[in-house]
Amino acid sequence: MTNSAEPPVRRRRPRARAVLAVLTVLVLLCWAANSSRLHGPGEGRPTTLAHRGLGQTFDLAGIENDTCTAERIHPPEHAYLENTIAGMRAAFDAGADVVELDVHITRDDRFAVFHDWEVDCRTDGRGTTRDHTMAELRRLDIGYGYTADDGATHPFRGTGAGLMPSLDEVFAEFPDEELLIHVKSDDPAEGELLAEHLARLPGDRLAAVTVYGGDAPIAALRRELPGLRTMSKATLRDCLVRYAAVGWSGYVPAACAGTQLHVPEKIGPWLWGWPHLFVSRMAEAGTRVVLVGGSGDWSAGFDGPQDLERVPEGFTGTVWTNRADVVAPLVAERGR
């Protein structure tokens, strides 16, 4: 007996083609809605974030969490040390829009502006930063440990006594400038204490302050000062994961509002609307987008003219740099 019925596959082909056509149209519409090439750059100019103000740079090759970076600096091209009033002023004078600085709680509940968990690497002192009072830290020579030639010479030894500032001194010296404070611990009590300090600032001053750091202190800080712009790994992850799911539609999740995003240059191209639409969408949500170098490890920045060639043309977010003296004028020129 002969079966004259057509094979099921043939009956389904027109439907499969229709589904494929619809999917193709949807993909094209999604691409068009998120194409920075079609929409062009947003309004405004790029800005510059000076990492630790202006300080000595160092070789990132093979660096680990416990590497003493002061012992591997490049031959000095200027006289400034990181996290100092002079280094911050030099960065702002060069044209930086924001200066990043590191803080540690002290034994007397002050906040010292210093990068390292321990003072042994950079200074002539010993022990954990938080086990010293602010007065004790101020007496240390913060230029003591720097060397560019494996210890043969120490070009800043003897020049750094009294240069470690407190956070209060930074606010007094820079009453109007944009500051990004980095909480170096993961202690929630440090976030609570920092909230107490920041709550004393006038509202317009606090609006020019952003804080980032460990998940626990930032969560504590957000509870005490919910209107403050903050960022941690948790807030960054929450925003980007949610945006990856719905950003194709142009919708910005609430997790992305009023925060800061440090976006590695290798990750940026995978974000919906990168770069122009993404930056514009986040700006409308009150969020600053900071482009950092490479994969985002070890505070890699855009530190010279050749690095800036990797920054997307027309980018209007913020560029992270360790050489504000070189890069800030070049970034400002891009916006003209």
UniProtKB/TrEMBL annotation:
<feature type="domain" description="GP-PDE">
    <location>
        <begin position="62"/>
        <end position="331"/>
    </location>
</feature>
<dbReference type="InterPro" id="IPR030395">
    <property type="entry name" value="GP_PDE_dom"/>
</dbReference>
<dbReference type="Pfam" id="PF03009">
    <property type="entry name" value="GDPD"/>
</dbReference>
<dbReference type="InterPro" id="IPR017946">
    <property type="entry name" value="PLC-like_Pdiesterase_TIM-brl"/>
</dbReference>
<protein>
    <submittedName>
        <fullName>Glycerophosphodiester phosphodiesterase family protein</fullName>
    </submittedName>
</protein>
